[in-house]
Design brief:
This protein is of the alpha+beta class. The chain has five helices and 17 strands.
C-alpha cells in the first residue's frame, strides 16, 4: 500500500476523453512532474499505459484509469476519492521482454515490450521463420503469417487473439505463439520458461520480408531477432480491489 501524503503526476493520451479527465484531475488534486512523483496516474487506454511504463515505470508505480478503447491494464475512471484509492491499491510487478535484432542491411536494432514481440509478414508471401530455443534449433521452417513471444501480462492481448494460451501472472512463463501457421500445420506454439532465449531467423528475407514489433515499436525488413526477459527492470502497476491483474487474467479464462 502507498502511504500518504502522495506526490502525484498525471499523464494522458491525446484522446478527448483522456484530455478532459486530465483537466478534471489537475483542477482537483495537487500534482508534480512525473520524474518527481510517488505515483504516476495514467489516463487513456492500454497503449498509453505501455508508453507510460516505458517512460516512467522505473521511477514510480503507475496507476491507470481507463479513458481509451481497451483498458485491460487500467482501473475504472472516477475523479472522486483518488487519494483513498491510491492508498488502498494493490501492487503487481511485471517484467518486460527485450528484443534485439538486425535488419537486412546489417543495422542492429533493439526495443522493449511489456506485452509481446511479434514478427509479421510484410507482403502477400507467407513468412518462413527458423526458431531457435536456447541455441537449439526447434523449427527449421515455420511457414506462417507471423509468430509472437508474449509475457504473462500480454497473454490476453494479441497472443489470445492468435489462439495462444492465457498465462497466470506469477507463472514465470512466456508464450511462443504462431500466427496463422501453414506448416507445420498442427503446431500450436509452446510455453517457455522466462529465462529462455528465443531467436527467430527470417528465411528468404528478399522474397518474404518480415517486420518485428515490440508492443508499438516496429522495425521492417528484419533478418533476425532475439528475445529475452529483462529481470532487472520490472515495473509496478497499481489496481483497485477486485480489478487486480491476477484476477482479470483468471476471469478471462472462464468467459463463455
Amino acid at each position: 500500500m502507498i502511504q500518504a501524503p502522495l506526490k502525484i503526476a498525471f499523464t494522458a493520451s491525446n484522446a478527448p476523453a483522456a484530455q478532459e479527465a486530465l483537466e478534471q484531475l489537475r483542477s482537483t488534486y495537487p500534482y508534480v512532474n512525473p520524474r518527481e512523483a510517488d505515483v504516476v496516474v495514467a489516463l487513456g487506454g492500454d497503449g498509453h499505459m505501455l508508453d507510460v511504463l516505458r517512460q516512467f515505470g522505473q521511477m514510480a508505480p503507475v496507476y491507470g484509469m481507463n479513458r481509451g478503447t481497451v483498458g485491460f491494464l487500467m482501473n475504472n475512471f472516477d475523479e472522486d476519492n483518488l487519494l483513498e484509492r491510491l492508498g488502498a491499491a494493490r501492487r503487481v510487478k511485471v517484467w518486460p521482454i527485450n528484443m534485439i535484432g538486425k535488419d537486412a542491411t546489417g543495422q542492429t536494432f533493439r526495443a522493449q515490450a511489456f506485452n509481446e514481440v511479434s514478427l509479421l509478414r510484410q507482403t502477400r508471401q507467407a513468412a518462413k521463420i527458423k526458431i531457435m530455443i536456447d541455441g537449439i534449433e526447434r523449427l527449421d521452417e515455420l511457414v506462417c503469417d507471423g509468430v509472437l513471444v508474449s509475457t504473462p501480462a500480454g497473454s490476453t492481448a494479441y497472443n489470445l487473439s492468435a489462439h495462444g494460451p492465457i498465462i497466470p501472472l506469477r507463472s514465470r512463463l512466456l508464450a511462443l505463439t504462431p500466427i496463422s501457421a501453414f506448416r507445420p500445420r498442427r503446431w500450436r506454439g509452446a510455453l517457455l520458461h522466462d529465462e529462455t532465449v528465443v531467436r527467430m531467423e527470417v528465411q528468404s528475407p528478399d522474397r518474404r520480408p518480415v517486420s518485428a514489433t515490440a508492443d508499438s515499436t516496429e522495425f521492417r525488413d528484419i533478418a533476425w531477432v532475439q528475445v529475452t526477459t529483462d529481470k532487472g527492470h520490472g515495473v509496478t502497476l497499481l489496481f483497485d480491489e477486485g480489478q487486480h491483474l491476477d484476477e482479470r487474467i483468471i476471469r478471462e479464462q472462464f468467459l463463455a
